[in-house]
């Protein structure tokens, strides 16, 4: 393990210890109130341009802030780097967090249709990484990467690990891994599971998600959920902490740099959107995810799309330019 990567995992381990993270199958719990940030290495989120949250129209067509990015695929975006030195990325690590509760069958199908074309576009627009894209899928009730769906085993992946790599078998592997089913815990914790999946216990040596995070590779976090992620005191459901705590925890996986995290969220958005007029009845539509949108908006790259949209490729395709901009403005750790 390289010295830089060892240092990064040490930082993550320290933060995760402060948060009380656990890598248990049911996710564990943690106290965000104990954390004070990432030790000063994170560029101030208040000075970043922030990502633009956009919802789909009533016709189901969503757009991303990535679609309006002015950064080319050959130059770094200095404004988003906060004046820090940048260099083109050498890879891209994509973590997909899928809600596997009982109202998510239609949404999972739409994501399954869009994931492979989206990643193919990223690979095409980032020739400098030469196919160096890694993809891990987790659910909202477990931080271990998906290696089987309710009907079949997805592994062995061609990567030889519990996550997938870009190549001729990726589309088939993604189709299996993203079909997570709808028998999951109704206690959806997308942010908690994302943070725990990238903690040292799981990505470090011997961990279930070992080797997923790499130097020179920004983290693209894609969240799909039809409910808000808020902690309910009575049931103790939902991820603990506030959006600012989640930002600190995810930035810690990238040396503390918010510039190296690209969050994309397909969640419930403010009207106008493609959800029913009543927005959410616990089964149909989607709960407006204000906290997840706040989390996304704290990063200089990323965007929020309408989960009720008829299809997701419009939103994901629109985000490609923003991902490319982030990759070309990568802040070395």
Order of helices and strands: HEEHEEHHHEHEHEH
Calculate the terminal CA-CA distance, rounded to whole Å.
Answer: 15 Å
Please list the strands of the largest sheet in the order they lie side by side: 1-7-6-5-2-3-4
- Number of folding domains? 1
Instruction: Give Rg in angstroms.
Output: 18 Å
For the sheet with most strands, the description reads: 7 strands, mixed
Q: Helicity level, as a percent range?
A: 25-40%
Structure description:
The chain is α/β, with parallel strands linked by helices and 333 residues long. It has one domain: Rossmann fold. 28% of the residues lie in helices and 11% in strands. The protein is built from 8 helices and 7 strands, in the order H-E-E-H-E-E-H-H-H-E-H-E-H-E-H. A 7-stranded mixed sheet has the order 1-7-6-5-2-3-4, sandwiched between helices. Strand 6 (261-267), helix 7 (290-297) and strand 7 form a beta-alpha-beta unit. The protein is globular. The protein starts with a helix and ends in a 5-residue tail after the last helix.
């Amino acid at each position: 393990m390289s010295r830089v990567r060892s240092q990064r995992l040490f930082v993550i381990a320290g933060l995760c210890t402060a948060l009380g993270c656990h890598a248990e199958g049911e996710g564990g719990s943690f106290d965000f109130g104990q954390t004070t940030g990432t030790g000063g290495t994170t560029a101030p989120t208040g000075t970043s341009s922030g990502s633009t949250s956009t919802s789909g129209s009533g016709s189901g067509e969503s757009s991303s802030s990535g679609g309006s990015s002015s950064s080319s695929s050959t130059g770094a975006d200095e404004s988003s780097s906060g004046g820090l030195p940048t260099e083109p990325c050498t890879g891209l690590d994509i973590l997909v967090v899928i809600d596997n509760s009982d109202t998510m069958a239609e949404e999972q199908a739409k994501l399954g249709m869009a994931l492979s074309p989206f990643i193919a576009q990223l690979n095409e627009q980032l020739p400098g990484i030469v196919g160096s894209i890694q993809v891990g899928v987790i659910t909202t009730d477990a931080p271990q990467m998906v290696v089987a769906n309710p009907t079949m085993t997805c592994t062995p992946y061609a990567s030889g690990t519990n996550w997938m790599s870009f190549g001729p078998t990726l589309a088939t592997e993604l189709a299996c891994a993203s079909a997570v089913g709808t028998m999951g815990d109704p206690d959806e914790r997308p942010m908690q599971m994302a943070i725990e999946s990238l903690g040292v216990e799981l990505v470090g040596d011997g961990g279930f998600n070992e080797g997923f995070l790499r130097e020179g590779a920004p983290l693209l976090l894609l969240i799909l959920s039809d409910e808000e992620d808020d902690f309910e005191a009575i049931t103790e459901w939902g991820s603990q902490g506030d959006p600012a705590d989640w930002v600190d925890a995810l930035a810690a996986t990238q040396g503390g740099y918010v510039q190296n995290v690209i969050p994309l969220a397909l969640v419930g958005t403010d009207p106008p959107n493609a959800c029913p007029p009543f927005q959410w009845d616990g089964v149909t539509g989607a709960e407006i995810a204000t906290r997840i949108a706040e989390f996304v908006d704290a990063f200089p790259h990323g965007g929020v799309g309408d989960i009720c949209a008829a299809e997701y490729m419009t939103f994901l395709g629109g985000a490609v330019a923003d991902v490319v901009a982030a990759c070309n403005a990568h802040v070395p750790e």
